[in-house]
Amino acid sequence: MTTAKGKILIIEDEVAIAEIVVDYLKRDGFETDHRVDGSDVQSLITTDRFALILLDVMLPGADGFELCRAIRQVSAIPIIMMTARVEEIDRLIGLELGADDYICKPFSPREVVARVKAVLRRHVPQDPLKQAGNTPLEIDHDSFIVRLHGKKIDLTPSEFKLVAALGAKPGRVWSRAQLLDVFSGEKDVFDRTIDSHVKNARKKIAQAFPELDLIQSVYGIGYRLEV
Ligand code: CA
Question: How far is residue 218's CA from residue 223's CA, in Å, rounded to a whole number?
Fold first, then answer.
């Protein structure tokens, strides 16, 4: 069961802080799920429907930086990062992790709830088609299938990863270096590999929809996906 306001995932190792935030969010009509680390966040967000993630930076295991990147590889879900150090916010913004907002601790729980609502307000109207289950671009992470206007596009796993990363934030410009992160841990992936995956994915999309310019080059920077 989900309420109209949606479910908020809180990843915060300081239980006392998390409990206060959970309490205030619940009072405001949100559902919540609290985790003390992000060990299973990728599977968590693909199996459960969350409206937003509140993500602490300093965590045991993978920190908020790594987790934000990992989440963005599979989802465009709104993320608010929480940090105890105000100077860290500049660094966070500079890293272009794809977070939607940042909150500095200590914060008032009221402020957190207000920020959550503000980010959700910004987020929802951008994607009315998705809300209706009628988005032109569907990315199915379970089956590694991309559908455009209902038509399946046969992509290799590498091409899928690229399209999924770009499609997580339509309109956002990704540098080749950021796209290389998608392949972190894989050998022999270079800037030119990214270009060739993009070229091949484009070719396949063009075969199905010749008039569609889905993956666009941004001169001197990288790529963006525009639905
Ligand atoms: Ca912490």
Answer: 5
Which pLDDT score, from 0 to 100, does residue 37 have?
A: 96
Q: Model's pTM, two decimal places?
A: 0.56
Q: Write the CA distances from 134 to 21, 52, 86, 96, 210, integer angstroms.
A: 33, 21, 40, 29, 21
Q: Where are the domains of the chain?
A: 7-122, 129-225
CA of 3 to the centre of ligand 1 (A): 28
The pLDDT value given to residue 4: 64
How many angstroms separate the CA atoms of 77 and 53, rounded? 7
Which CATH homologous superfamily contains domain 7-122? Response regulator (3.40.50.2300)
Decide: 45 and 19 in contact? Cβ < 8 Å: no
Q: Determine the pLDDT at residue 135.
A: 65
129-225: which CATH number, 1.20.120.450, 1.10.443.10, 3.20.20.140, 1.10.10.10? 1.10.10.10
Beta bridge partners of 137: 148
- Give residue 157 CA to ligand 1 midpoint distance, Å: 34
10-residue mean pLDDT series, the chain (227 residues):
77 97 96 95 86 95 92 87 84 80 92 94 54 66 83 89 88 85 71 89 92 88 88
First to last CA, the chain: 31
Distance CA 68, CA 99 (A): 7
Protein residues with C-beta less than 5 angstroms from the ion ligand 1: 13, 56, 58
Q: Would 7-122 and 129-225 be classified into the same CATH topology?
A: no
